[in-house]
Amino acid sequence: MKYVLRQLGLYLLAAWVSVTLNFVLPRTMPGDPVTALVGKMRGRLDPQAIEALKATFGFTKGPLIQQYWQYLSHVMRGDFGLSLSAYPVKVTTIISTALGWTLLLGLVVIVLSFVIGTALGVLVGWKRGGLLDSILPGFLSFVGSFPYFFLAMLALFGLGFELKWFPMAHAYSDALSPSMSWAFVGSVLYHLVLPAGTVILVSVGGWLIGMRSTMVGVLAEDYVTMAEAKGLSERRVMYRYAARNAILPNMTQFGMSIGFVFGGQILTEIVFSYPGLGFYLVRAVNAHDYPLMQALFLMITLAILVANFIMDLLYVRLDPRVRAS
Amino acid sequence: MADTEYATGARFFRALLRQKKAATGAVILLFFLALALLAPLAFPGDPTRFVARQNQAPSARHLLGTNGQGQDVLAQLALGARTSLFVGFSVGFLITLLGLAIGMTAGYLGGLADGLLNTFTNVFLIIPALPLLITLASFLPPGATTVALVLTATSWAWPARVFRAQTLSLREKDFVAAALASGEGSRRIIFAEILPNMLSLVVSSFFGNVVYAIGADVGLAFLGFEDLNKVSWGTMLYWSQNNSALLTGSWWTFVPPGLCVALVAFAMTMLIYAIDEITNPRLRSEKEIAGVLKKLGLGQRRSTPVLPYGNER
């Protein structure tokens, strides 16, 4: 319980830091970004919108502390104003559609790479020095040294452009509209293969190597020798005795990896024009759409913090030692 | 002190050179360093000048073809190595330095200072780096200094945490207690007693940070957040994507820079593994035992082997 509370405090602090950074950063720019923006929009904004924009940013006449307070209350209410590049669409509308795609891609990637990497790590650690062990870790750590988006470009070029096996962009076929039909779901999965596959390929090596080294440690334990001496079947020793104990240290990295995987995902979304949060974040930056950009930054950061916290809770469930302390 | 024997000076590096992994890594790395140093001699002139028709496939005249703007890809690759490696190494150095300063201060001082610094580190550790990087880079004026500052500011936390843990455990060792008892000052204890004993950790962390910095720099450039007139591996990938190299099939404009980034990262990773193997006796003995077992015809074993008398190591 104490552990959970301490972690919760840490996440709240991190959330506050991100929210505050979001407030401070625009103010480090020379001049007032709202005015600068209005200049860029060349009179396409009506005065009412400008006032609303200033209010969302907290760029009012009052002292800084009052501005900060105003900004916080807007954030608390989930009011991020209107997007400038897609004026007058609400920022929250854009985010809510993008969030779904990002969650889909992110969950598929994280779960699959963890499961595949860990399972391979168990095998490789068990048959140490075998054929698989001499090929896989080296190969995957070489693949892992590619920049995420570069592998995505290669896959897009080879499997999408040259062989035409997979679609080259978007989350579902342009001919379909979102519905709960088989055709649509199939199209979504079909479009998911390349973006998810490339990120999985890059990130699976880390899990494999982590799992292999903890397996090596666990296999030297007396209870594994004992289990073998008892004449238990190989499968039983491998899964019930060794892998089960070796998986815990690998789990601790799970939370940390969410942020990293997401970083790779942002770039992958760009390459595949996958309409997730990362895709919109970069588009918003390039279009100087500050309201959208700020909201996206907060959204992504908070999503990762929440994901990390859920992982911590899960970890407490799995490791009795954490619960006891 | 398992690693003191190697951690100090020449023996550490001699052991490093004997390693196969280290040799592979070192050869690749030296190749790229030489490429970066010799590039201006081999490819004189402006790499962004127009040399031939756009998107020409590799030929004898232009070994890696031309890109979407009719520039020579090979010349850009060689000269781009200078920018990318320079950013990578200098930012890697800055990250390691900042991590050392914060981590060692926290670990050595302990108490309230440690509590505050550790919380600070943890907060930065859980705020995801890339969105923060993108947001920071978009607010600050584009340029090499911005990139260096932003990359350092967003990634010092992990090394700081590692160094703090190591300092904490070294601080409890007898030789530090002896140094304290003999009246040595804090500065000497930190720099002459603790730091040399974590040299291998610092070196492998430095390599890791360089890999990270090169990758993040390339990623930022690819997204267009850097000075796009400057030739680097990242901007090459940016222009390749922006000139629709994927749709025109000009693979030679994006495969070489990406492959170079991967090779450098791979070389560094090999060096890190080698350092790990040298300084972690457990990993080393694993190899030796495997050799002995093979000789005895015992094959692979899962659990600790019981060796016949007279063959113990």
Structure characteristics:
heterodimer, A: 325 residues, mainly alpha, 78% helix, B: mainly alpha, MetI-like fold, globular
Structure description:
The complex is a heterodimer of chains A (325) and B (313). Chain A has 325 residues and is mainly alpha-helical. Chain A is 78% helix and 0% strand. Chain A has 13 helices and no strands. Chain A has helices spanning 2-28, 33-41, 47-57, 64-76, 91-126, 131-144, 148-162, 182-219, 222-229, 234-271, 277-286, 290-318, 320-324. In chain A, helix 1 packs antiparallel against helix 12, helix 5 (91-126) packs parallel to helix 12 (290-318) and helix 7 packs across helix 8 (182-219). Chain A is globular and about 80 Å long. Chain A starts with a helix and ends with a helix. The mean pLDDT of chain A is 82. By secondary structure, chain B is an all-alpha fold. Chain B has a domain at 44-259: Orthogonal Bundle (MetI-like fold). Chains A and B meet through helix 1, helix 6, helix 7, helix 9 and helix 10 of A and helix 5, helix 6, helix 11 and helix 14 of B.
Write the layout of secondary structure elements.
The complex is a heterodimer of chains A (325) and B (313).
Chain A: H1 2-28, H2 33-41, H3 47-57, H4 64-76, H5 91-126, H6 131-144, H7 148-162, H8 182-219, H9 222-229, H10 234-271, H11 277-286, H12 290-318, H13 320-324
Chain B: H1 4-7, H2 10-18, H3 20-42, H4 73-109, H5 111-126, H6 129-139, H7 144-155, H8 157-171, H9 174-181, H10 186-194, H11 199-222, H12 233-242, H13 245-248, H14 255-279, H15 281-296
Helix pairs in contact in B: 3-4, 3-14, 4-5, 4-7, 4-8, 4-11, 5-8, 6-7, 9-10, 11-12, 11-14, 12-14, 14-15
